[in-house]
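Design review, sub-item: ligand-bound model
Attendees: FS, YL, KQ
YL presented the inputs for the adenosine monophosphate complex:
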Amino acid sequence: MNIIVFVKQVIDPEAPPSTFKIDSASNKAEMRGAPPVLDPYGQYAVEASLKIKEAKGARVTIISLGSGLMRDVVKKPLAMGADELILLEDEAFTNGDSWSTAEALAAAVRKTGQFDIILCGRESSDTNAGQTGAIVAGILGLPCVILARKIEVSGSKAVIEKVTSSGFDVVEVPLPAVITVSNEVGEPRYPTIKGIMAAKKVQPIVWKPADIGLDTSKTGAAGKRLKIQKLFQPVNEGKCEFAAGETPEEQAANLALKLREAKAL
Amino acid sequence: MTDYKGIAVFCEIKDGKLLPIAAEGLGAGRKLADSLGQDLSAIVIGSGVAGIAPSAITFGASKVYSIDAPVFKDYNADAYVKALEKAATQIMPAVIIMGQTDTGRDLAPRLAFKLGTAATMDCVDLSIDPVSKRLLQTKPVYGGNAQAIFITDTDPQIVTIRTKAMTAPAPDNLRKGEVIDVSVDVEETDIRTKVVNRVVEEVAGIKLEDAQVVVVGGRGIGGADGFKQLEELAKLLKGAVGASRPPCDNGWIPDTVQIGLTGKIIAPELYIAIAISGSSQHMSGCSGSKTIVAINKDKEANIFRHARFGVVGDWKKVLPAFTARVKE
Ligand SMILES: Cc1cc2nc3c(=O)[nH]c(=O)nc-3n(C[C@H](O)[C@H](O)[C@H](O)COP(=O)(O)OP(=O)(O)OC[C@H]3O[C@@H](n4cnc5c(N)ncnc54)[C@H](O)[C@@H]3O)c2cc1C
Ligand SMILES: Nc1ncnc2c1ncn2[C@@H]1O[C@H](COP(=O)(O)O)[C@@H](O)[C@H]1O
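KQ shared the predicted structure:
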């Protein structure tokens, strides 16, 4: 079985909100002082692929699109246990919307030839879009199931537990299919020392638009349907009143008093 | 692009009623339709929904497109996309609005792809650009650290809206409108994904979404036992218990009570956040609360930038004392 997993390099979403800064000229953001990381939901997707690999045996290929991809970051899935890394690294691929990003990812998938399952994160931590999977599925003409918390392959189909707001649905889908993965699938495993050493030696395959037969007018900024007009930080001028006290009991009494005065209790 | 006119709202139905988010969508849609001087339509999909369709009129729609057949009884992505595609082709709306619900999250990107256009998910504000007459779509990005305003170049401009971000109008039972039946054939071969079972894991007691008081625990609670103390306070205040993501991931409490960007979005009167750092992703789910109270041992914790009242201290000491005071 061949599994393809999409992962993306992002600014660290877990860095303290106070380090978040916007460059309004480029409409881009950074976490000042924090190095980039692999998108958390992409890591859950890698974890899901490795669970299938353990259960059924599979070859796991990672595809990541971007520019300035730090090798330490994008090699993490290899260190976790994935087999191959393909980078779509070119300025022409970048600054796209979900669709123009999906065009390039789908073209790369086609070029790899063999695939049974394509996994991606439920939403990336920067766009919070949650659309790439569905659009890749659309382009490739494949069925798509979102928000998987468990994936079981049986013959030519997958049985998926899909997270819902009140529990989960059990969904059956024929393969090949695109599946997006949620955190309920389980914490991504830590890379082993052996895995990290092995990953260091792997040379990623790098593809440019021409390598995947992609017309550059379809990808990246050139292929966008959705334009960003403005990126801004909402103002939050909340003032916290602290309940004082020498002891926790005094603090608690003070808090109850303040809440009663504010008619919140 | 000028062929596309008006606003259409996909109104979800549950338990024989429109979901509150459908009314919120119609409220938002009405404002957009008025500022464009165009029509507001609703789309309903289901089985035996003839009695429900007219309620969209009371919330402001002038036309309701009703797709009513047994195959639409329960949500199925393939069937519903086909239905919406047909409705959209018939209505040719400039804008399609739906809720950022289990269904909307699944449908919007698929529909956008089918129609050759783009969707913007989880919008918190919608308005019409006075010059270009295009839809300005404000959506949180970077986990809520920022918001972006997007413009779609293609039509229809599809958006999902965040729960409680927009106001539902009061229903007006005297409002007149027209219900139009749309028939959609769904073939066996259209259905590629099949739902074979639906499992509901709802917790007992007051539902999180309906609770006026919510007591919420984070990673600092440390285990399932700690949540019992939160439950005691919640019960006392006739509220519900919620959590940030780590307690759910660790199995201390069911996943369905997760609050935040990828969990539930709520706006109670009182939100008591205990041992929660206040990440932007968590705050996305509760920033609309009337009063936020935080108990955290770290006085620099981000949660205090959102809280109205706070206690710096160990929750294990502060919470029992606070609960005792509330009992008085
Ligand atoms: C795309 C994306 C989506 C996400 N969606 C969500 C979401 O929907 N909901 C969500 O919650 N998270 C979400 N997250 C995760 C989020 O980024 C944070 O990791 C998470 O919210 C942190 O939870 P926390 O505050 O409980 O834990 P922490 O950040 O670890 O904070 C624990 C806090 O407890 C305090 N504490 C510890 N012990 C005590 C004590 N004894 N007394 C008092 N205080 C104590 C500490 O000072 C600290 O502030 C998402 C992340 C990503 C990338
Ligand atoms: N540039 C990219 N490179 C690789 N995978 C991506 C990229 N952008 C999005 N994805 C995948 O699509 C998922 C959802 O992204 P999004 O639709 O942007 O929320 C991510 O978790 C990734 O798995």
